[in-house]
Amino acid sequence: MNACIGDRLRRARGAAAACGDLVISLRHRVAQTPERIADILRQHRSIVAAVRARDIDQAVRAVQEHCDSARDDLLARM
Predict the structure, then answer these.
(1) Using CA of residue 38, residue 40, residue 41, residue 45, what is the dihedral sign?
(2) Which pLDDT does position 33 carry in this prediction?
(3) What predicted TM-score, i.e. pTM, was given to this entire model?
């Protein structure tokens, strides 16, 4: 595997893992609004589309956007 692609995949996995740890620890404590659920679905679709297109840069951006959005939403509710 190309070293650059491998590095980007590792970064994407790391971002997803960090986001997952935060969300898993807090998501059951916070009710989701229909608007937030729609945002989450849009973000997930964006991640899947980037992965399917094999666009690593876009996938990393989409995962980061999703993680930032989840963090911001959770912090705003605390």
Answers:
(1) positive
(2) 85
(3) 0.66
